[in-house]
UniProtKB/TrEMBL annotation:
Its EC number is 2.4.2.44. The record marks 168, 222 as: Important for substrate specificity. This is Probable S-methyl-5'-thioinosine phosphorylase. Catalyzes the reversible phosphorylation of S-methyl-5'-thioinosine (MTI) to hypoxanthine and 5-methylthioribose-1-phosphate. Involved in the breakdown of S-methyl-5'-thioadenosine (MTA), a major by-product of polyamine biosynthesis. Catabolism of (MTA) occurs via deamination to MTI and phosphorolysis to hypoxanthine. Although this enzyme belongs to the family of MTA phosphorylases based on sequence homology, it has been shown that conserved amino acid substitutions in the substrate binding pocket convert the substrate specificity of this enzyme from 6-aminopurines to 6-oxopurines. It comes from Thiothrix lacustris. The lineage of its organism: Bacteria, Pseudomonadati, Pseudomonadota, Gammaproteobacteria, Thiotrichales. InterPro entries: MTAP (IPR010044), Nucleoside_phosphorylase_d (IPR000845), Nucleoside_phosphorylase_sf (IPR035994). It catalyses: S-methyl-5'-thioinosine + phosphate = 5-(methylsulfanyl)-alpha-D-ribose 1-phosphate + hypoxanthine. Belongs to the PNP/MTAP phosphorylase family. MTAP subfamily. Residues 5-244 form the Nucleoside phosphorylase domain. The keyword Metal-binding does not apply. The keyword Glycosyltransferase applies. Pfam families: PNP_UDP_1 (PF01048).
Amino acid sequence: MTIEFAVIGGTGLTAIEGLEVIHREVVHTPYGEPSGPVTHGMIEGKRIAFLARHGYTHNIPPHKVNYRANLWALKSLGVEKVVAMAAVGGITPEMKPTRLVIPDQIIDYTYGRAHTFFEEGLTDVTHIDFSWPYCPEVRNALLAAAECAKLDVVPHGTYAATQGPRLETAAEIARLERDGCDLVGMTAMPEASLARELGLCYASCAVVANWAAGKDTDEITMAEIEQNLLLGMASARALLRALVC
Ligand code: HPA
């Protein structure tokens, strides 16, 4: 049975409710070990693969995730479509905590991450097109699923990918807003561009965990993030179930 799509779970989503687990598979890649074994399962009669980006015990910080190994592992299993779940901070007024967002653009502020497969042993220099970093097919499937499940999602947004693991300063967020960013998170890059390099159709569902620095309270607490994620990820799970509706 072919895998319909893969889900990369982010903070707050280390398992999918309603997923009947078939087996877990350890995959070794030329780029090292993925964040954990890939979980094969069925959801609403469809075959999916699941990988927890930060590890099943949530112990790998964003700048230490082996993004190349994760995507290579999924590709090697025959996956073609990837839905990436991600916790983010909200910058612009629409991006309220607990909301779901299907972003359509990215600005990359990360550094020092292994960000390409096209590095060594090349016969030619390769430049992928990345004008539209998210794959329209999976984006549209996510938007259709939201409609099907009657979930309120923001259908667009520019994602600022920051290095982390610390949160940003208020001045950094003001700069990201001037740059045109709506959301801020730490994992979309290089995940999205590596997916494109492998020819995977990749899009994301972001869950707003908090107002970004300087946007609301003086301090962002982990308790606030966790509480909002609990609510937001419940909607995100409903969205994933509806992907097959
Ligand atoms: N900044 C960056 N990443 C995040 C945030 C944030 O405020 N919240 C959740 N992930």
